[in-house]
Amino acid sequence: MNTAAQELADLRHTLEQCAPTAILDHLGRFLVISDKLSVCLGYDRAEIEGRSFQNVLHPDYPQLLVQDILGRMSRLTVWSGELQFRTRSDRTCWMQGTFVPILEGEKGAVGFQFIGFDVTERKAVERSLAVSRNFTTDLMDLTPIGFLVANSRGECQNINRRWTELSGLTLRFALGRGWLDAIHPEDRPGVERSWATVLETGATEQKEYRYLLPGGHETWVLATCARVQRGNDNEETRLVRAEVDLTQRRQTETLVREQQARIVSSAKLASLGEMAAGIAHEINNPVTIIKGHAARLRMALDTDSNRREDLGDTVEIRVTDSGPGIPPEIREKIFQPFFTTKPVGQGTGLGLSVSRSIVAAYQGVFSVDPGCPNTRFVITLPKQPRIPAAKAA
User: Fold this and answer.
1) What is the DSSP secondary structure assignment for residue 57, as one 8-state letter?
2) How many CA atoms lie within 13 A of 207 on its CB side?
3) What are the Cα distances from residue 32, in Å, to 48, 49, 105?
């Protein structure tokens, strides 16, 4: 028994030397404090013993917690939590502490045992992390790029302000799989496939898609999706989306396409007008020549019977110039539509083609005489042509 008591006393002594401990009365006044607690608070034993623990708490420590501690003491129940002390040098000392009632037989509670652990350094690190986290959040909110962070299951964990502006969703509605509800229904399957590919392969992917905002407004974005992994733990894998607004660019592209279409349409109409004028010119020229030659031929035939040649049921008109003739290599092409030997912009290549079509409409033949050393066109028409019937409207 003496050995057990001695071991307990030794353990208590060791605890007092290594941990901030104290004995308090039922009113919360220090009766005995350990050397470690004396060092942490910066007070000698004589300076602190007999004073209430409230006297060494930091002024910033919430009074609600103080009342909670006193209430637990009055009810003789255990209280555990963080305590913020002010040291003798006016520094802050944080402790994770516990107040345990000391029961002594029939007397009941004769005081409280306080056991604490100095967590000042841990709190400093937590504050530093909080400052860094707040700075990162503020920085992310200032960037014009939308960011979304998700876990390995594709569940949203955090967003920045710009992402909310692009998608129309706040963090409350974007958490989990809710962020996918903002994507245009036509684009969502592709986004989910891209998401799965990035998670599986680790490759960075870019994809354009739309968010469908309330009211039917669409926002186009270019999203770059990447996998960020720490260690081999899949739970530490994060998927990050960085999204740039493409709406204005898309609208500009649409406007440019519409303007290009209008320009092309105007150009087609202008070309059609030029073509119509060219066709009219090409038709008028041979028709005028034919009418002139027809009149001269009629006069010649009426005055000179020797120039008449009886061709039976047809009439033949030959038009000959004094030039070198048509080269054999293009002789078969001159009646093709749009074939011309003139420079670009100076001819349509429709004159001979249209003339042949007109002659053919009257059951005639329009050809070139290959045996003539000059250029000679021959028109053969029936004396009694059948006028083509007009097509019904």
Assistant:
1) B
2) 21
3) 9, 6, 21
Find the helix or strand (DSSP H, E) in which 130 lies. helix 120-142
Is residue 50 within 8 A of residue 25, CB to CB? The reply is: no
First to last CA, the chain: 127
Intervals of CATH 3.30.450.20 along the chain: 10-125, 143-245
- Classified by CATH at the fold level, domain 143-245 comes out as Beta-Lactamase (3.30.450)
**CB contact at 8 A, 211 and 184:** yes
**H-helix or E-strand spanning residue 352:** helix 351-361
Closest to 78 measured CA to CA, from 87, 69, 86: 69
Cα–Cα distances (Å) from 264 to 259, 267, 278, in that order, read 9, 5, 20
CATH of 10-125, one of 3.30.390.30, 3.30.70.20, 3.40.50.150, 3.30.450.20: 3.30.450.20
pLDDT in tens, 50-86: 999 999 999 999 999 999 998 988 888 999 999 999 9
